[in-house]
Write a structure and sequence with these properties.
heterodimer, A: eight-stranded mixed sheet, about 35% strand, B: mainly alpha
């Protein structure tokens, strides 16, 4: 009988140990450990683009976690993401003009919603709405800005359109900046293939403030940095006539493919033993292919 | 009927085994209410298959967690992502390694013991004697062992997972120097109670527990009453449980995740 009792005690210990392990896993190693304790209230925010934001992503003010994303849904009939934020009751003094932004923690980290306080005297209530939001910025755009290709002109005061034909536009796309002397003066409106002429017709919208561009100026597709995005650079000519709306730029230089450049560099370098000069000489025809 | 099955080819034989096993499951389920009378027997079996397996489960869980952290640290350091070590250790243990390895160990440690015990009971006519004494062997022998396996495996899996996390922490934080806070906060940020712990550790190991216990009891119960027959049935318990666990794991993963 005592033998049996020891079984029972041992088995009971085993069961308790098993459940204790489960409780430990569930509470200490999972997101339950992050869930806020107190009551929370819900605030709406609408974003144009939420990127990789997921439900239960943290909501932070000044880097401190104050709540989490409760739900993400598409606003019916609009291409707008409706994000419900569940925020801890303790932090109930968020001004109504605060800005909600989708941030990325680190380069590859998860995304979260950051709230920057505004100056309004009124606070957001339960079910209220943060009207000012900033969407998630795709990494490509940030890199583009970082490498100097971003920062399109503000187009205040309207734009005028000019055309340019390129035999190769590389990865140039609508929205790419147009620069003169490194300063953004407009942007690419469209890139279309011309089936009959076998080239690409690029439409540039240039800010009206920059209407003193000679009509013999050259347009070139450049790449900002090694992996940056591409942009159209305008190299001014010497004519006294200026570009007008609907003009076409005659002198163009197409995008240089990195692969071509590297290929030429390698081939010439190994062949002639005079790599630098060979590569330098061969880049100019590369533009015209 | 047994003789006829043995003469058939391997496909028919396998199908016959599966069918007989399914029918046996129904018999056991029907016998469970009757076995409640022998609840002490269930507790005793739980002690044998569960509590006695704790040592091997704990040691294996510790080493699995340690080797996972070690491997992941070296791979993740290529991408500069060693902070994710804890997360990946936890998720891989909860979702796959915990239930599967625990079930495989359980089949080897406890399943074989059940098969051999029941097979020898059959060989030494103990089961026939029970029937003579009007004790239902299904309720007294088969059902308690089935229940014990069903209950023990999820509990063992929880212990295995907890020790695995501890082992991962030991190697990752104590030895390789990942920051303690990073290790835990990344883990808690990613691991989901329902998707990872409940559906992995609990549901999967419940299913594995049922399968392993059923195969072990079935093989013992239908083993030919010879020493060779019992030996063969024990081997088949391990082989059939391992295949069943891994195949079922794939199916469950497809459904649960």
């Amino acid at each position: 009988m005592s033998q049996r009792k020891s079984y029972a005690v041992g088995t009971g210990l085993f069961i308790v140990l098993g459940f204790a392990a489960l409780a430990y896993l569930a509470t200490q190693t999972s997101s339950v450990a992050n869930r806020q304790q107190g009551d929370s209230y819900t605030v709406d925010a609408q974003f144009q683009n939420i990127g990789q934001l997921k439900e239960r992503a943290p909501v932070k003010i000044a880097g401190v976690r104050v709540g989490q994303v409760q739900s993400i849904a598409l606003e019916p009939g609009k291409a707008v993401a409706d994000v419900k934020l569940s925020i801890d009751k303790r932090y109930d003094t968020i001004p109504t003009d605060s800005v909600a932004t989708v941030f990325t923690s680190g380069l590859l980290g998860d995304q979260y919603v950051g709230i920057e306080y505004g100056h309004a005297k009124k606070y957001v209530a339960n079910g209220g709405k943060l009207a000012l939001t900033r969407s998630s910025e795709p990494l490509e755009e940030m890199l583009g800005k970082f490498f100097g290709a971003g920062g399109t002109a503000d187009a205040i005061g309207g734009t005028y359109k000019v055309f340019a034909r390129f035999s190769n536009v590389g990865t140039l796309s609508a929205g790419s900046p147009v620069k003169m002397a490194g300063v953004p003066i407009g942007q690419v409106v469209s890139v279309q293939a011309e089936p009959d002429k076998l080239d690409a017709l690029v439409t540039l919208a240039i800010d009206n403030r920059y209407n003193q561009i000679p009509d013999d100026s050259a347009a070139a597709v450049f790449t900002s940095g090694l992996i940056g995005s591409q942009y159209v650079a305008i190299q001014p000519g010497g004519s006294s006539d200026m570009l007008k709306n609907g003009d076409e730029m005659i002198l163009t230089q197409s995008a240089m493919q990195l692969e071509d450049l590297i290929g030429k560099f390698l081939v010439n370098g190994s062949g002639s033993g005079d790599g630098k000069q060979g590569a330098g000489a061969s880049t100019s025809p590369a533009g015209k292919h | 009927m047994n003789a006829r099955i043995e003469r058939d080819n391997i496909v028919t034989q396998a199908l016959g085994q599966i069918g007989a096993c399914g029918l046996f499951l129904l018999q056991i389920l029907a016998a469970i209410p009757r076995s409640l009378r022998y609840v002490r027997e269930t507790v005793r079996q739980l002690w044998f298959v569960g509590a006695m397996s704790l040592t091997i489960i704990m040691v294996c869980g510790l080493f699995v967690g340690m080797v996972l952290a070690l491997q992941l640290y070296h791979v993740l350091s290529i991408f500069g992502g060693t902070a994710a070590t804890g997360t990946v250790v936890a998720i891989s243990i909860y979702r796959e390694l915990g239930p599967v390895i625990t079930a495989l160990l359980f089949a080897g440690r406890a399943g074989t013991a059940i098969t051999a015990e029941i097979g020898l009971m059959r060989a030494t006519d103990q089961i026939a004697a029970m029937e003579l004494m009007a004790v239902d062997p299904l309720a007294y022998v088969a059902a308690p062992r089935f229940l014990a396996g069903l209950i023990a495996l999820p509990l063992l899996c929880c212990v295995f997972s907890a020790l695995g996390i501890f082992g991962g922490h030991l190697v990752g934080v104590t030895w390789l120097g990942i920051d303690n806070g990073t290790f835990w906060s990344n883990m808690t940020a990613t691991v989901d109670v329902w998707k990872d712990i409940i559906s992995g550790v609990v549901w999967k190991s419940l299913a594995f527990g049922a399968v392993v216990a059923l195969i072990a009891v079935f093989q013992g119960y239908t083993a030919p009453p010879t020493s060779e027959g019992v030996a063969y049935a024990t081997t088949r318990t391990v082989v059939a449980s391992s295949i069943a666990i891994l195949a079922l794991d794939f199916v469950l993963t497809a459904f649960l995740m």
